[in-house]
Amino acid sequence: MGYKSATQILPQDLLQKVQEYVDGEFLYIPRISDNKKDWGAATSTRQELQVRNQYIYEDYLSGESMDYLAEKYFLSLKSIQRIVGQLKKDDKG
After folding, report:
1. 3-class SS at 10?
2. Is 69 exposed, middle or buried (0-12, 13-18, 19+ CB in 10 A)?
3. Residue-level pLDDT at 1
4. Of 27, 56, 57, 72, which has the fewest CB atoms closer than 10 Å, so is most exposed?
5. What's this model's pTM, rounded to 2 decimal places?
6. 61: helix, strand or coil
């Protein structure tokens, strides 16, 4: 999400109308629901987390304790349990 100057985008009459409600403050304009993107779609974050989670699961399968994995990956024990549980479920079918 980037900031744009309303003076460069909106027609003057519309800008004046908006200023009647909000004068000199930031205003968030949400996306049209059909244009919304899934979380992580604009970056590689989702893919990076999937790779990290796979490493966590492989470490778990090789015998590492969940407490150790939480320390190694700087995550809470609850997060490690959730990741391992989800991947274990995915493995079964």
Report:
1. coil
2. buried
3. 62
4. 27
5. 0.59
6. helix
Can you tell me the distance from the alpha carbon of 50 to that of 11, in angstroms, rounded to the nearest whole number? 44
Q: What is the rounded CA–CA span in Å between residue 83 and residue 88?
A: 8
Residue 23: count other Cβ atoms within 10 Å of its Cβ. Answer: 7
CA dihedral sign of residues 46, 51, 52, 54: positive
- Mean pLDDT per segment of 10 residues, for the chain of length 93 residues? 85 93 88 74 86 97 97 97 95 79
- State the number of CA atoms in the 13 A half-sphere of 5 facing the CB: 3
